[in-house]
Specification:
alpha+beta, 10-stranded mixed sheet, 5-stranded mixed sheet, 15 helices, elongated
Amino acid sequence: MVGFEIGAVPFNPDGWGPPDSSTGGSISVPNQPSNVPFAPFSRSERIGRIADWTRTLQNPGRQGTNSKQSHADSAFDFSTDDSFATLAADEDSSFRLVDTAAKSHHHGQHRPKFNPRWRFNPHHQRSQLPQRRDEEVEARKREAEKERARRDRLYNLNRSGINAGQRRESSVFKSSVDIQPEWNMLDQIPFSTFSKLSFSVPEPEDLLICGGLEFYDRSFDRITPRSDRRLERFKNRNFFRITTTDDPVIRRLANEDKATVFATDTILSTLMCAPRSVYSWDIVIQKVGNKLFFDKRDGSQLDLLSVHETSQEPLPDVKEDINSAYSLSVEAAYINQNFSQQVLVRDGNKLTFEEPNPFATEGEEVASVAYRYRRWKLDDDMYLVARCEVQSVVEVNNQRSFLTVNALNEFDSKYSGVDWRQKLETQRGAVLATELKNNANKLAKWTAQALLASADMMKLGYVSRVHPRDHFNHVILAVVGYKPRDFAAQINLNTSNMWGIVKSIVDLFMKLNDGKYVLVKDPSKPQVRIYEVPPDAFENDYVEEPLPEEEQVQPPAEDADTGEANGVANDVEDNKEVSTEAAA
């Protein structure tokens, strides 16, 4: 085999480098380089970067980097010419590595690709990239928090009415009743106080049931958007919205001292769900001796059904627009009335009770409704009587179940963002969730009324316009049934908190002197105000029914159903006369 000779390696006992000839070495090194300075000329050349462990000078060109890197570079940065060394250091300080390669993870740690530039500090890149990545994550979190805070701020401004001119119709945030200068404000109660109240009541007792109920048509449970049904108009059935003190049965029960507090389910549900309300409303309260009467004014907002009350999307500013808040309320009340009568079996079979409808005259055709006059015990010497309504009945195996019937209405999918015709069959939960967001107060009030009436089932109908610009013709897309207690738990409606609100209001007014008061929901703040008003207040107010003829929705002029529409308008006028006579 061919041998390899290493040759003689001289040893210098006096220091670094090869020994010179004076010490017995065989290699002589010139004292100075000839012609060219001994220094690197480009970034890739590492000439002169030898290990000088005796050097402790910090390189000023490395300021701004981490201390480990500066110390390592100072230990390995040596040049025979300081000018070139400083230039190289300045160039290196402006250099920044950007790694565009895909990151790979192994056992949760980042393994950077090898680069000769990192040979003296292999942990430098490993300590920098994750730090910069964490900074990016933290920056994104901060931006997300800012965006969330901005949305919450806009939502709170919208709910409180401060931003009403931009987000909502300005008329919506006007007070439901004109506050007169002679009224004396007694108290202001914020909704935050209501949320902390709790009170439990025993099971109520039925004092009397009046009216008659028709049976529910179960075929409506099978309706789908593909097999929808046209919403009919009932021109010959009368509906009554009689306030508490105009109810002859309540007057009779008051004279018999059956209770100390009297109200209707509509008024009680408004109080119980007050913290969820955005629009202004008012309730008239009269104290006579040791008795309280909760009333609504003629033409009160309580007779209408709010639409998109808790939505963040603005409605048109013009009241005459078919999608304004007032027009939608009238349309919703119209839909709700007709839907509650269409889902019945109209074969003449009716379940009657011990007394007929107390507001109807003999021979008059009235809507299917039963009034349950129920009594709750508030404390040892205080009872509350309320008139509660149910709209239908179902009989299975000789067992009767009372139903409440209400309808949600879709007017334009661009406001809610969910098209019922596309989502009801496959994503019914998403549709309901959207309605709970946009109409939280209305759905909570319907649930409270079903609980007050001890209804076994509440039927919710999904009714939509035939065309978004036609606010007169509608179709039924689906009907869904819920148990009131289960639905209340689903929408986070606490019955103890509901009764806590009622009990606190009753206790507050029981301490006041005899007289007339009005409880008003502030139009721009989440609170209610209590005013003392003259005894003759609201008696000369103009009576405006929820569906007056001049405000009744009309079909397009070219529609073939124009004659039928005029019939419904005339029927509304008839209802107005009947309601006025009954109230008298």
